[in-house]
């Protein structure tokens, strides 16, 4: 009962190439890109068929252990697409771009972010780590440059000196994070994808993304936990 995968066309190949070079693409951009590729390569275009278009590409990527994945921004809940390498379990994706010491700083930063209450780590705390790296110590100035690179390359994002994982990082490293931080990494109770910036129920400990919290409680007069029904004590964003 094997379904023959739909054929890859030049439009599919063009879409994939651009997606890979972008690193991450916001949903509305991906829809524009879909149209652009179909029109450029004279391939049938249907505006509501982006998901089908992507699953055709994914069926051809499967033997290469790659996949276009969709994820939501933790800030505003908007969809994003990124190409994920399923064969890379470690933070190996980054290993070709960064040195050993830079990767160590990244891993330690990731620890801080994931183990924090709210999914953020302050630049002060991150820069303090730079003195304690095993590979070799890193000067603060140097560490600041490396953090800048992580932000430019969309592994981290930064707001007022506070760092969190970029949507791209969450999409690409979800499996790595869930398996390496089993005790603390939470999936959002609403959308079931990894939640870094989240609110947590004080009674039962489930977590929810901020956009999911907003949506979920919008219709309720009194916010109660979707799991244990206790009063939701966090401020609704």
From TrEMBL:
Its EC number is 2.3.2.27. Pfam families: SMC_Nse1, zf-RING-like. Transmembrane segments: none annotated. Residues 188-229 form the RING-type domain. Keywords: Chromosome, DNA damage, DNA recombination, DNA repair, Metal-binding, Nucleus, Telomere, Transferase, Ubl conjugation pathway, Zinc, Zinc-finger. It is found in: Chromosome, Telomere; Nucleus. GO terms for cellular component: chromosome, telomeric region; nucleus; Smc5-Smc6 complex. InterPro entries: Nse1, Nse1_RING_C4HC3-type, WH-like_DNA-bd_sf, Znf_RING, Znf_RING/FYVE/PHD. Its main location: nucleus. Gene3D superfamilies: 3.90.1150.220, Winged helix-like DNA-binding domain superfamily/Winged helix DNA-binding domain, Zinc/RING finger domain, C3HC4 (zinc finger). GO terms for molecular function: ubiquitin protein ligase activity; zinc ion binding. Component of the Smc5-Smc6 complex. RING-type zinc finger-containing E3 ubiquitin ligase that assembles with melanoma antigen protein (MAGE) to catalyze the direct transfer of ubiquitin from E2 ubiquitin-conjugating enzyme to a specific substrate. Involved in maintenance of genome integrity, DNA damage response and DNA repair. Belongs to the NSE1 family. This is Non-structural maintenance of chromosomes element 1 homolog.
């Amino acid at each position: 009962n094997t379904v023959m995968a739909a054929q890859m066309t030049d439009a599919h190949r063009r879409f994939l190439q651009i997606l890979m070079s972008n690193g991450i693409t916001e949903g509305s951009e991906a829809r524009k890109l879909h149209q652009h590729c179909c029109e450029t390569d004279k391939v049938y275009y249907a505006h509501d068929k982006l998901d089908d278009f992507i699953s055709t590409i994914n069926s051809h990527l499967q033997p290469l252990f790659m996949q276009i994945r969709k994820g939501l921004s933790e800030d505003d809940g908007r969809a994003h697409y990124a190409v994920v390498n399923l064969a890379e379990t470690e933070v190996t994706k980054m290993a070709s771009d960064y040195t050993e010491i830079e990767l160590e700083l990244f891993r330690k930063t990731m620890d801080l972010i994931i183990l924090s209450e709210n999914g953020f780590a302050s630049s002060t705390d991150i820069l303090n780590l730079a003195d304690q790296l095993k590979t070799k110590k890193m000067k603060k100035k140097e560490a600041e440059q490396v953090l800048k690179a992580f932000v430019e390359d969309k592994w981290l994002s930064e707001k007022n000196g506070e760092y969190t994982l970029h949507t791209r990082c969450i999409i690409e490293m979800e499996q790595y994070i869930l398996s390496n931080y089993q005790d603390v990494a939470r999936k959002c109770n609403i959308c079931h994808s990894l939640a870094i910036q989240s609110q947590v129920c004080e009674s039962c400990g489930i977590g929810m993304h901020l956009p999911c919290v907003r949506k979920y409680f919008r219709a309720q007069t009194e916010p109660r936990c979707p799991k244990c029904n206790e009063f939701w004590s966090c401020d609704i964003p």
